[in-house]
Amino acid sequence: MTLFELLRDRAKNQSTMIASRSSRRVVTYRKFWSRIERGTARLKSEWNVEPGDTVAYWGLGHQDALMLYIATARCGARLLPLEHASLQQGSTAILREIPVKILLHDDDTVFAHPPAVPQLVNLSSLIATRCHHVPVIEEDAQRSSLITLSGDAKSGFHLQEKSLHQLSSAIVNNPVQEFRIAAALFDNDVFAPQVLSTLTAGGTIIFR
């Protein structure tokens, strides 16, 4: 069972369990999946994200960024997280090498110089209002869904792409029932072994 199938099943059969919470909101698994579907529809039908495209996230460990990743993966696209200062500072070179269809950013982000991307929108727009389109989605956990970068502009960035299937191989056998995001959400030692493991087990991701 893929994470897509697991979350859909939990939304139906264990709907009141808490998927994520922060100081602003508590999200049950039913709401979590509903917002992922809403985000998927907006990405595909309103923002024209197609399989193979890249979607960028500029921020730091936001609660909605987790939904953005899963919605992006459902579209067959890849998420490029720009969470660390070194990546944001090197974003001009990164976005030249990895063109993106749209960049979503935390609502409180202030850009000295906005990134040169086709579309630049607030992350809250992903789920702020319902999208009335119901696009056809072919979920494929084998498609590349996450791009991670390490290094810096001076020494060069190292790019790594992984599919949801590959990320799932890092899921631990005895996950915790709650995991707190201290800073970045998509770091290699956090996202798959901690975040995806906790979700797979029906636990709760705690955000600031």
From TrEMBL:
SUPFAM superfamilies, per the entry: Acetyl-CoA synthetase-like
Membrane-spanning segments: none
The protein's superkingdom reads Bacteria
All residue ranges annotated as the AMP-dependent synthetase/ligase domain in the record: 8-122
Q: Which InterPro entries match?
A: AMP-dep_synth/lig_dom, ANL_N_sf
Q: What is this protein called?
A: AMP-binding protein
